[in-house]
Amino acid sequence: MAMSTKPAHERELFGHPAGLYILFLTEMWERFSYYGMRGILVLYLTAETLGDNPGLGWLSNEALSLYGWYTMLVYVASIPGGIIADKIIGQKKAVMIGGFLLVAGHGILSVELMWAFYTGLALIISGVGMLKPNISTLVGGLYQQGDERRDKGFSIFYIGINTGAALAALSVAYVADIWGWHAGFGLAAIGMVLGQVVYLSGQKYLVSVGNKPKPVEANSDDVSIKQIFQQQFSSGKTLLITLFLALGSSLAAWFFIGHQKIAYIVFFIFLSVVVGMMVTIYQDLRSQVEKDRYLVLLLSFIIVIVFWGAFEQAGGLMNLYAENRTDRFLFGYEIPAAAFQFFNPFYIMIFAVPVANFWLWWKHRGKEASSLFKMANGVIIMGLGFVFMVFASMQYEELGKSALYWLALAYLFHTLGELCASPVALSFITKLAPVRYGALMMGVYFAATGLGNKVAGLIGESASEAGELNIFAGITIFCVIFGVLVIMLLKPLKRLTHGVEEEERDLTK
After folding, report:
1. Distance between start and end Cα atoms, the chain
2. What's residue 318's pLDDT?
3. Cα gap 194→31, rounded to integer Å
4. Which positions ≥6 away from 247 have C-beta within 8 Å?
5. Residues of 356-372 as b/e, b for ≥16 C-beta within 10 angstroms?
6. Helix 114-141 / helix 91-109 crossing angle, nearest 10 deg
7. Nearest to 109 by CA among 192, 169, 3
8. For the residues 129-144, what does the mean pLDDT come to?
9. Which of 181, 174, 171 is nearest to 41 (CA)?
10. Read out DSSP for 224-258?
11. pTM
């Protein structure tokens, strides 16, 4: 009887707050819509205008360029989305607004007009920016500090992410293949509508989390972006660095980039401001320990960029490879190219626990199991996945088609690499980040992920001239060499962290 009289937001289901399952279903359907649309985007752009399933008829490099800009902006938009939630409206309302923007964006994409296409993309970028960084914060807010169920709660939440991605890869791909691209976009919109209905109907379970923030206390030690900008542009050194990088990169873009000059100039100015901000923060740090850890933090951002720059070929170049170079017939039926996006979330659901258990076993044997070591190995394993794409390209050159098992094997290695690198990257960054800049470093992490997505688009674009075989081989070689270099530098890098992970282990004893 006592359980039934509890307020809704205090009720539990299967040992966790009931609100967790509202957020689980919301994120599942949001990821369904995002990955469903992402899986067919490049294929729609490159489909012939007069074919059986007409698209826009763009060249591959044009489509991959747009894909790079789009996926980058989705992550970069998380920065203002997080700031708006933290400072003005709260996470709960931000997720709600993001959901409405996504419903509108995916819905408009189902309209067969160019203005609708670009408007839909802009709304989706804005919607993901509002929803993605804040829904995870809501999950964390359901648990009190020190609650041992917290990690398991996030594991349940991430199952929702991959369930949505797996369902989307199959259903949206088949709908787009049978009834047309805009029907696929429409199905993604229906998924987002379901997610929004779940979220709105479950508000009573989220009463205590993500509410409008209280005014910041005057003695708060957190540093705002406004304060950083004031320091950055009032200091002669950092101002000079920012202006030099912005001017130099803008001139380079103007004279050496053949198309999208203005877009790249804006992009380079943004990167120059970010670099200047990083220098400003370094100068403001109060101790050598903070400065040393900050240097390792910057390397971690580079690892993130390298990893996603290679990994995100999945939705771009590898998606086009599945469409144009792969024999997709299985038991007499031709599998839609976008359906190959199913492999990654499927593998994650199968291998997430075994990989986590392996690292735990490895650590208990007294072996190296630091976050940097895991991230470096993740880059290497993921890079080795492109070996199978090299074999696929060689088979294509010999026979005119490559077998679909090459893609299945490549995605397997990519997923194993992701499970080594991605889960620990964000956690490691939060450990290294100076306390006063913790929230900002989360934003920089999303920006690094976005930059990796843009790099992925640039690499894909170059395949039209360099050829897929050379691109896949180049990615393999670079990732392996990069990962090995990080491992070789592991000892001095760990010294610069000043035992940040050892301190955490001591706290659990």
Report:
1. 38
2. 94
3. 12
4. none
5. eeebeeeeeeeeebbbb
6. 150
7. 192
8. 84
9. 181
10. PHHHHHHHHHHSHHHHHHHHHHHHHHHHHHHHH--
11. 0.88
Computed from CA positions of residues 176, 182, 185, 190, in that sequence, does the dihedral angle turn out positive or negative? Answer: negative
| Strand (E) or helix (H) holding 333 | strand 333-334
Average of per-residue pLDDT across 308-335: 93
CA atoms within 13 A on the CB side of 275: 17
- Residue 443, number of CB atoms within 10 A of its CB: 20
Per-residue pLDDT tens for 157-175?
888 888 999 999 999 999 9
Chain Cα centroid distance, residue 185: 21
The tokens describing 332, both together, are 């007499």
% the chain with pLDDT above 90: 58
The number of CA neighbours under 13 Å toward the Cβ of 130 is 21
Instruction: Kindly report the three-state secondary structure assignment for every residue of 460-491.
Output: HHHHHHHCHHHHHHHHHHHHHHHHHHHHHCHH
Using H for helix, E for strand and C for coil, what is the string for 162-207?
HHHHHHHHHHHHHHHHHHCHHHHHHHHHHHHHHHHHHHHHCHHHCC
H or E segment at 355?
Answer: helix 343-364
**Looking at residue 132, what is its pLDDT?**
86
Q: Determine the Cα–Cα distance for residues 71 and 74; give it in Å rounded to an integer.
A: 5
DSSP symbol at 334: E
* Confidence at residue 220, expressed as pLDDT on a 0 to 100 scale: 56
329-330/12-13 β-pairing = unpaired
DSSP codes joined into one string, 1-37: -TTTTS-GGG-EETTEEHHHHHHHHHHHHHHHHHHHH
Angular region, 179: left φ>0, alpha ψ -120 to 50, beta rest: alpha
For residue 494, is pLDDT > 60? yes
Given a cut of 70, whether residue 300 has pLDDT beyond it is yes
Q: What distance lies between CA 407 and its chain's CA centroid?
A: 21
Q: Which DSSP letter does residue 76 get?
A: H
Q: Which two tokens stand for residue 126?
A: 């804005």
Helix-helix angle 18-46:317-324, to 10 degrees: 60
Contact between 500 and 371 under an 8 Å Cβ cutoff? The reply is no
Does residue 230 register a pLDDT over 90?
A: no
